Amino acid sequence: MTRGWGALRGWALCAALLVQDPGAVAAHAIILESEPAAGAKLAEPPTRIYLRFNSKIEKRLSRVTLAAEDGRPVPLVVKTDGGEKPDRIVLVLGSVHPGAYAVRYKVLAADGHITEGALRFTVLEPK
Q1: CB atoms within 10 A of CB 22
Q2: Residue 29 CB: number of other CB atoms within 10 A?
Q3: pLDDT tens figures, 43-89
Q4: What is the DSSP secondary-structure string of 36-80?
Q5: What is the spatial distance between Cα 18 and Cα 42, in angstroms, rounded to a whole number?
Q6: Owning domain of residue 103
Q7: In principle, which of 1, 15, 108, 123 could form an S-S bond with 58, CB 3.0–4.6 Å?
Protein backbone atom coordinates (compact mmCIF):
# COMPACT_ATOMS: atom_id res chain seq x y z
CA MET A 1 0.00 0.00 0.00
CA THR A 2 2.89 2.41 0.75
CA ARG A 3 4.47 1.73 -2.64
CA GLY A 4 1.25 2.81 -4.39
CA TRP A 5 1.22 6.18 -2.62
CA GLY A 6 4.88 6.75 -3.47
CA ALA A 7 4.22 6.14 -7.16
CA LEU A 8 1.20 8.43 -7.07
CA ARG A 9 3.25 11.20 -5.43
CA GLY A 10 5.95 10.76 -8.11
CA TRP A 11 3.41 11.14 -10.93
CA ALA A 12 1.88 14.16 -9.20
CA LEU A 13 5.32 15.80 -8.93
CA CYS A 14 6.04 15.21 -12.65
CA ALA A 15 2.65 16.66 -13.61
CA ALA A 16 3.23 19.73 -11.41
CA LEU A 17 6.62 20.37 -13.01
CA LEU A 18 5.17 20.17 -16.51
CA VAL A 19 2.39 22.61 -15.63
CA GLN A 20 4.83 25.07 -14.08
CA ASP A 21 7.32 25.00 -16.97
CA PRO A 22 5.60 24.13 -20.26
CA GLY A 23 8.67 25.49 -22.11
CA ALA A 24 10.60 22.47 -20.90
CA VAL A 25 8.37 20.32 -23.10
CA ALA A 26 8.02 22.54 -26.19
CA ALA A 27 11.28 24.45 -26.54
CA HIS A 28 11.40 25.18 -30.28
CA ALA A 29 9.92 28.13 -32.14
CA ILE A 30 6.88 27.06 -34.15
CA ILE A 31 5.17 29.15 -36.81
CA LEU A 32 1.65 29.98 -35.69
CA GLU A 33 0.74 32.16 -38.66
CA SER A 34 2.23 33.18 -41.99
CA GLU A 35 1.44 35.36 -44.97
CA PRO A 36 1.38 33.96 -47.51
CA ALA A 37 0.07 30.82 -45.87
CA ALA A 38 1.92 27.57 -46.53
CA GLY A 39 0.70 26.10 -49.81
CA ALA A 40 -1.15 29.28 -50.85
CA LYS A 41 -1.95 29.91 -54.49
CA LEU A 42 -2.00 33.68 -54.95
CA ALA A 43 -3.62 35.66 -57.77
CA GLU A 44 -1.44 38.68 -56.90
CA PRO A 45 2.24 38.68 -55.93
CA PRO A 46 2.81 39.30 -52.21
CA THR A 47 4.55 42.49 -51.11
CA ARG A 48 5.79 40.99 -47.85
CA ILE A 49 6.45 37.79 -45.95
CA TYR A 50 5.00 37.67 -42.43
CA LEU A 51 5.95 34.99 -39.90
CA ARG A 52 4.51 34.79 -36.36
CA PHE A 53 6.08 32.32 -33.94
CA ASN A 54 5.02 30.90 -30.59
CA SER A 55 7.99 32.52 -28.83
CA LYS A 56 10.28 35.53 -28.97
CA ILE A 57 12.80 35.39 -31.82
CA GLU A 58 16.37 36.72 -31.71
CA LYS A 59 16.07 38.57 -35.00
CA ARG A 60 19.75 39.58 -35.27
CA LEU A 61 20.68 35.89 -35.39
CA SER A 62 17.84 34.71 -37.62
CA ARG A 63 17.93 34.26 -41.40
CA VAL A 64 15.24 34.04 -44.08
CA THR A 65 15.63 33.42 -47.82
CA LEU A 66 13.23 33.39 -50.76
CA ALA A 67 13.86 31.10 -53.71
CA ALA A 68 11.97 30.74 -56.96
CA GLU A 69 11.53 27.20 -58.19
CA ASP A 70 14.31 27.65 -60.74
CA GLY A 71 16.57 30.09 -58.88
CA ARG A 72 19.07 30.48 -56.09
CA PRO A 73 17.87 31.54 -52.64
CA VAL A 74 17.91 35.30 -52.12
CA PRO A 75 18.54 36.47 -48.54
CA LEU A 76 15.82 38.73 -47.15
CA VAL A 77 16.55 41.47 -44.62
CA VAL A 78 15.22 40.67 -41.14
CA LYS A 79 14.52 44.01 -39.47
CA THR A 80 15.93 44.35 -35.97
CA ASP A 81 14.81 47.90 -35.26
CA GLY A 82 12.08 46.84 -32.85
CA GLY A 83 9.22 47.90 -35.10
CA GLU A 84 7.60 44.47 -34.88
CA LYS A 85 6.61 42.43 -31.86
CA PRO A 86 9.39 40.06 -30.68
CA ASP A 87 7.57 36.96 -31.94
CA ARG A 88 7.11 38.28 -35.51
CA ILE A 89 9.27 38.72 -38.56
CA VAL A 90 8.11 40.91 -41.45
CA LEU A 91 10.15 40.94 -44.64
CA VAL A 92 9.53 43.37 -47.49
CA LEU A 93 9.64 41.81 -50.96
CA GLY A 94 10.73 43.32 -54.22
CA SER A 95 9.37 42.15 -57.54
CA VAL A 96 7.85 38.68 -57.38
CA HIS A 97 6.83 37.06 -60.68
CA PRO A 98 4.41 34.18 -61.29
CA GLY A 99 5.82 30.83 -60.24
CA ALA A 100 6.52 28.59 -57.26
CA TYR A 101 8.52 29.92 -54.29
CA ALA A 102 10.04 28.59 -51.10
CA VAL A 103 10.59 30.72 -48.00
CA ARG A 104 13.29 29.10 -45.85
CA TYR A 105 13.91 30.27 -42.32
CA LYS A 106 16.44 29.54 -39.61
CA VAL A 107 15.51 31.34 -36.41
CA LEU A 108 16.95 31.46 -32.93
CA ALA A 109 14.31 31.48 -30.21
CA ALA A 110 14.96 33.45 -27.04
CA ASP A 111 15.36 30.14 -25.17
CA GLY A 112 18.42 29.32 -27.30
CA HIS A 113 16.90 26.71 -29.61
CA ILE A 114 17.37 26.97 -33.38
CA THR A 115 14.46 26.08 -35.64
CA GLU A 116 14.69 25.61 -39.40
CA GLY A 117 11.84 25.22 -41.80
CA ALA A 118 10.27 26.20 -45.08
CA LEU A 119 6.92 27.17 -46.46
CA ARG A 120 5.97 27.17 -50.09
CA PHE A 121 3.54 29.29 -52.08
CA THR A 122 2.70 29.89 -55.73
CA VAL A 123 1.96 33.11 -57.59
CA LEU A 124 -0.46 32.28 -60.42
CA GLU A 125 -0.20 33.62 -63.96
CA PRO A 126 -2.60 36.54 -64.55
CA LYS A 127 -5.83 35.60 -66.33
Answers
A1: 9
A2: 25
A3: 999 999 999 999 999 999 999 999 998 888 999 999 887 788 999 99
A4: SPTT-EESS--SEEEEEESS-B-GGG-EEEEEETTS--EEE----
A5: 41
A6: 27-123
A7: 108
